[in-house]
Design brief:
The protein is of the alpha/beta class and about 190 residues long. The chain has six helices and nine strands; from the N terminus they run H-E-H-E-E-E-H-E-E-H-E-H-E-H-E.
Length: about 190
């Protein structure tokens, strides 16, 4: 039940982070079932360290709008937020909230659909018709198309950002085996003060 982007993210988490051996507190926003199952299994026996949140999903532990996260400052070590920001009204506010609840020294993966042919993100809140949103943004409930300025948007919330072309580090055989996209992985860090 995984999409290309889920497999790419899972391989990154397994190969490039300490998640296979460590148990940092994770807040997984709008958890994808395929990733949630693997992370819940990993965190079995470590209650309260893997938490999921969503606006409505009955599968999530908590329910809230990512633009107004009801958690204290410096709450979590890791944030996973995959393909959410293109849906929210104020993505910059959502990013500020993610930065606020991440502990200093913490990190996260914040991914969104990208159009690398665009220099700048395109958004137009006057487009509300679902068919027109689908035509322009690619999906009826998307509000923007991120361009090459995506990392700058992440930085504007206070994050340090690594733009990683992780798929390029894999062999051609691995890319075929896992049917991976050419997407980049955007890792955000909250600097220790």
């Amino acid at each position: 039940l995984s999409l290309e982007r889920h497999r790419l993210l899972w391989l990154y988490l397994q190969r490039e982070t300490d998640l296979p051996t460590a148990y940092p507190r994770i807040l997984h926003i709008a958890p994808e079932v395929c990733l949630m199952r693997k992370l819940r299994k990993h965190y079995d026996g470590h209650p309260g360290l893997y938490l999921t949140a969503d606006l409505e999903s009955p599968l999530a532990d908590m329910h809230f709008d990512v633009q107004h996260i009801p958690l204290e400052n410096d709450f979590t070590d890791v944030v996973i937020c995959n393909h959410i920001l293109e849906h929210v009204e104020d993505d910059r506010q959502a990013l500020r909230e993610l930065h606020r609840i991440l502990k200093p020294g913490g990190w996260g993966v914040v991914l969104s659909p990208m159009d690398f042919s665009r220099e700048e993100t395109f958004e137009d809140d006057t487009i509300t018709d679902p068919a027109e949103r689908t035509r322009i943004f690619g999906q009826y409930d998307h509000r923007r198309i991120y361009g090459r300025d995506y990392a700058d948007r992440l930085r504007s919330a206070g994050f340090e950002v690594a733009d990683i072309d992780f798929a390029a580090s894999l062999t051609e055989a691995e890319r075929r085996l896992y049917a991976l996209p050419d997407d980049h992985i955007y890792v955000v860090y909250k600097v220790r003060e």
